[in-house]
Write a structure and sequence with these properties.
Shape: globular
Helix content: 25-40%
Structural class: alpha+beta
Radius of gyration: 15 Å
Largest sheet: 4 strands, antiparallel
Number of helices: 7
Oligomer: single chain
Bound molecules: adenosine-5'-triphosphate, magnesium ion
Length: 144
């Protein structure tokens, strides 16, 4: 309905290709300038078991092994973003999965190296956002 604000939280990951190139500050600036607030954030190194569990929805896909190997190839920044329609807003700011299809100015258009090494992850719906936030953070760690 017009005039009603819908504040959401979404799980974002700055992926190893981006942490390796010291892009975390630039990406955070783009997220914040895009209207999203970083209400939790930590830099971690995923184990293979953690990556496989996080991406278990893709376990039957041909790229699953490559994806999990990439996600464990270096540190990641996991973060919770909050804002008006944060889930769809973050996906707009990220751009299309394949950087070749990503709109100009999006994070993936600017920084992604390939379909796999595409710099960022963002939850795709409310239910997956809740599960993904709970995978990495306790409620007490989210400080709006
Ligand atoms: P993410 O879930 O990371 O936000 P997405 O929702 O745009 O990205 P998904 O379809 O959920 O894309 O795929 C998860 C990730 O798997 C992609 O971000 C990308 O890193 C990798 N991936 C997806 N499709 C392919 C593919 N065909 N080949 C190689 N890697 C892929
Ligand atoms: Mg996805």
């Amino acid at each position: 309905m017009k005039g009603i604000t819908v504040t959401e939280r979404t799980l974002s990951i700055i992926k190893p290709d981006a942490t390796k190139r010291n892009l975390t500050g630039q990406i955070n600036a783009i997220l914040e300038e895009g209207g999203l607030r970083i209400v939790a954030q930590k830099r971690i190194q995923l184990t293979l078991a953690q990556a496989m569990e996080f991406y278990s929805v893709h376990r039957e896909r041909p790229f699953f092994g490559e994806l999990c190997e990439f996600m464990t190839s270096g540190p990641v920044l996991v973060q919770v973003l909050e804002g008006e329609k944060a889930i769809s807003r973050n996906r707009e700011i990220m751009g299309a999965t394949n950087p070749a299809d990503a709109d100009a100015g999006t994070i993936r258009n600017r920084f992604a190296l390939s379909l796999t090494e595409n710099s960022v992850h963002g939850s795709d719906a409310g239910d997956t956002a809740a599960v993904e936030i709970g995978f990495f953070f306790a409620g007490i760690e989210l400080v709006g």
